[in-house]
Amino acid sequence: MAFTLKNLIGLVQVAIQNHASDIHLRMGESPCLRIRGDLVPVQTRPFGKEDIEDICKIIFQNDETASKLHQIKELDGGFTIPDTCRLRFNFFHFNEKMGIILRIVRNAIPTIEQLQLPPVVGEIALHQYGLILVTGPTGSGKSTTLAAMINHINHLSHAHIITIEDPIEYIHPQIKSRLTQREVGRDTESFQAGLRAALRQDPDIILIGEMRDPETVGIALKAAETGHLVLSTVHTTNAITTIGRIISMFPPEEQPDVRKRFSENLYATIGQRMLKGAQGKNIVLALEIMLTTPGVKECIMGEEPLGRILDIIQEGRGASGNGSQSFEQHIMELFKKGIISKETALESVEGASDFQQQLLVEK
């Protein structure tokens, strides 16, 4: 029996009801749901080759592509289920079999408040120019945070916002801003091509789905230098590794110039980690926020060690600070509020022994 759109909608609705973020579909296996960080099997029959092929025909929305599944090694894309959600998919081959991962993207664009992000994130989003990087591992909610920031701008500013995504996740309505959302592969050949074109499209704000290579970074820096606000993501763990990653993308002879340009144009980094809530029933975001200060610029330039950035970030916490905070500071706050457990707090920091002493003092 064919796997129909109705069957797919039913599976997605089960995932949504169980607060799943992803659906894993693989030949010869029952579907699994990613729920609060864990993979949970769905109690149903294993999916066969025909099931995967039927799902591909539905979500690819292109009969020619769907007919060439065995020639396609992997494929990214997006598919909308009206009145339910959007799906970001990745199709792939493994061990002579086929699989699909479906990321569930809610139709409703979350607000900064709904994500329980600090107010400073909204202030960062409204900055007029410079580079803002949201960082974290795969699946840490970077795209969702960026969507909330764009949503915040859209409600408060009359701006032209161009997004270059692979694929498009959240579809933004026109509220106060005019949004031009472009998808790599469908609307533009690459991040680099889309970014170069964006500079000729009278933008105020440019969102780039990911900083993957030196060419993209170089064009993004040029956009920031010419008075635009540029937002993007990097698959790094914190501000220090982000700075190191960006600089190391370039050959040694270019790095001094890159350090200078990066120090002058980086406005903020927002690092994310997903933690389990105290009762294990929800996911909590722990954030590292770094706003670029003269001290941070010195570290980027190589005049001071990069490791000093953590001290500078921690100094930004509190009434007299600029809104910066380290992961450890935010994790401590989440623990003190009862939002996460002591065990989760200790598992989530690098200096667990020092953190243990802080926890004892706090008690």
How would you describe this protein?
The chain is of the alpha/beta class. 37% of the residues lie in helices and 25% in strands. The chain contains 14 helices and 13 strands. The strands form two sheets. A seven-stranded mixed sheet has the order 9-8-10-11-7-12-13, sandwiched between helices. Strands 3-2-1-6-5-4 form a six-stranded antiparallel sheet, with helices on one face. β2 and β3 (38-41) form a beta hairpin. α6 (191-198) packs parallel to α7, α7 (214-225) packs across α9 and α9 (255-265) runs antiparallel to α10 (294-301). 38% of the residues are buried.
Q: What layout of secondary structure does this protein have?
A:
Blueprint: H1 5-17, E1 20-26, E2 32-35, E3 38-41, H2 49-60, H3 63-66, E4 74-81, E5 85-94, E6 97-106, H4 119-125, E7 130-135, H5 142-156, E8 160-165, E9 178-183, H6 191-198, E10 205-208, H7 214-225, E11 229-234, H8 239-248, H9 255-265, E12 266-276, E13 283-291, H10 294-301, H11 308-315, H12 327-336, H13 342-347, H14 352-362
Parallel strand pairs: 7-11, 7-12, 8-9, 8-10, 10-11
Antiparallel strand pairs: 1-2, 1-6, 2-3, 4-5, 5-6, 12-13
Number of domains: 2
What CATH calls the topology of the largest domain is Rossmann fold
Superfamily (CATH H level) name of the largest domain: P-loop containing nucleotide triphosphate hydrolases
Order of secondary-structure elements = HEEEHHEEEHEHEEHEHEHHEEHHHHH
Task: Using the coordinates above, name the CATH class of the largest domain.
Answer: Alpha Beta
Q: How would you sum up the global shape?
A: globular
The appropriate CATH architecture of the largest domain is 3-Layer(aba) Sandwich
